[in-house]
Amino acid sequence: MNYTLSQLQIFYKISKTKSITKAAEELHLTQPAVSIQLKNFQNQFDIPLTEVIGRKLYITDFGKEVATAAESILTIVNEIDSKTLAYKGQLTGYLKISVVSTGKYVVPYFLTDFLKLHPGVELRLDVTNKSKVIDDILKNEVDFSMVSLLPDIENIDNLELLQNKLYFVTGSNDLITNKEDDISILKDLPILFREQGSGTRTTMEKFFESHGIQLKNKIELTSNEAVKQAIIAGIGNSVMPLIGIKSELMNGTLKIIPIKGFPITTNWQLIWSKNKKFSPVAKAFLEYLQQEKFTIIQKYFSWFEEYA
Predict the structure, then answer these.
(1) Where in the chain are all domains bearing CATH 3.40.190.290?
(2) Lowest mean pLDDT among 45-49, 87-91, 222-226, 296-300
(3) Which residue, 223, 166, 214, is CA-closest to 193?
(4) Disulfide engineering: 148 pairs with which of 3, 21, 101, 199, CB 3.0-4.6 Å?
(5) d(CA 81, CA 29)
(6) Taking the CB of residue 162, how many other CB atoms lie within 10 A of it?
(7) pLDDT, tens digit, for every residue of 191-206?
(8) DSSP string covering 155-178, please?
């Protein structure tokens, strides 16, 4: 056997993403380079690591065992690198965070100054759906997750970061009036929803149910960006987090409809397992947020106060 750390890293990433293309993107390599390294790695084993069925890549049982071993080896190597730099007084290592899709508008601002303070820290940020975010915590695959609604699971700690304001939004001037409308106007409007499991959708459904609103025309879309573009195109209207529509409000392509009961407010939360054994990087990041979160909010989110 004569495989390299690079080959182990590439195969491990392929095993996680189930895709050569996605692995190449996450490793910042070309697809042909990843394919060649996978082939060279496979040539050192008599048993297949992967198989392709109907254009879809699968990891064999043997491949899964190799991927598990590769993860352990890479973890040890990273710990050695971190300890080496720690002796030089530098904080190094990986910070692994998963966030729900709308959280991508929030989390960078809580990271940027921390990463500038500690250039040896490498960030692994996964923007995904709510189910995957919770699963990442339960499987101990990340240090932290960010959600707008606390999950109903045990042994979770949290740090409240920022208020999440949700407004009823349109792309049409026809719905804009000079008064605050009654919530009953919503029942006759085409309403865009995120997919099942989305935190924003859950908040919307609870709000409409609590006010006895039964919607006649519901349209489902699978991303925040898709909802925005559909509103702008005139397909419908929706409840959207203020954090994700700043640019569109400023350029006038989206407008907030003043309706009684809005905004709906939740809170962006950083969550982690109570049983989590923090790495030095994760511990330093949590301490940083506990000390600096109000400074960060004032620095990057003061524009929030323009919207009551």
Answers:
(1) 163-266
(2) 87-91
(3) 223
(4) 199
(5) 22
(6) 21
(7) 888 888 788 888 888 8
(8) SEEEEEEEEEEEEEEES-GGG--S
